[in-house]
Specification:
By secondary structure, the chain is an all-alpha fold. It is built from eight helices and no strands. The longest helix is centred in the N-terminal third of the chain and has 49 residues. Keywords: Signal.
Length: 162
C-alpha cells in the first residue's frame, strides 16, 4: 500500500514539474517568435527607407508594358510594389514564420498564426487581375524594372498613371 502511495505521489510531482517545464518551453518559443517579429519589423523599416533610392524617372517602356491599358499598368505597378516589398524582407519573414509555427505547434495558441495569416493573405483581387494580365510577363517585367522597394504612388505619378 505504501508503495502505491509513493508511486502516486511521485507521479503527481512529475506531472507538476513537467507542466512547469512545458510552460517554460512555450515561453521560450514565444520569446523567440516575438524577437523574430521585432527583427522583421526592423527590416521592413529598412526596406521602406530604400524606396528613396529608386529611380522614379526611369522609363518603363518595354513593348509588353506599353501595350497595356492604364488600369493594367497600375495593376502591374501595384503588384510590383507588393512583390518588391516582400522580397526585401524575405529572409526575416521566413525566420519569423518558422518561429511562429514552432510556437503555435507546441503551445496550441493559434491567435498569432491567425493574425499573421490575415497580414500575408494578399490582395486576392490584385492577384486575379495579374493572372488576367499574365503572371509570367508581369514577373519578368518586375524582375527587370521593379525588383527593389519603391513608393508605388510616386512611381504612378512619375509615369503619368495617377
Amino acid at each position: 500500500m505504501r508503495f502505491k502511495l509513493l508511486l502516486i505521489g511521485l507521479a503527481l510531482c512529475s506531472l507538476s514539474v513537467q507542466s512547469e517545464n512545458l510552460d517554460a518551453w512555450a515561453n521560450q518559443l514565444k520569446h523567440e517568435m516575438d524577437s523574430n517579429y521585432s527583427l522583421l519589423n526592423q527590416r521592413v523599416s529598412e526596406c521602406k527607407s530604400i524606396r528613396k533610392d529608386f529611380d522614379y524617372s526611369k522609363a518603363l517602356d518595354t513593348e509588353w508594358f506599353t501595350k497595356l491599358d492604364k488600369s493594367e499598368k497600375q495593376t502591374v505597378i501595384q503588384y510590383g510594389f507588393a512583390y518588391a516589398s516582400q522580397q526585401c524582407s524575405l529572409k526575416e519573414r521566413q525566420i519569423y514564420t518558422s518561429a511562429l509555427v514552432n510556437y503555435v505547434a507546441y503551445s496550441g495558441d493559434k491567435k498569432p498564426l491567425n493574425e499573421w495569416l490575415s497580414l500575408v493573405e494578399g490582395d486576392k483581387d490584385l492577384q486575379q487581375k495579374v493572372n488576367e494580365i499574365g503572371i509570367e510577363d508581369t514577373r519578368k517585367f518586375i524582375a527587370s524594372y521593379l525588383s527593389t522597394p519603391f513608393d508605388a504612388l510616386q512611381l504612378l505619378k512619375a509615369q503619368g498613371l495617377f
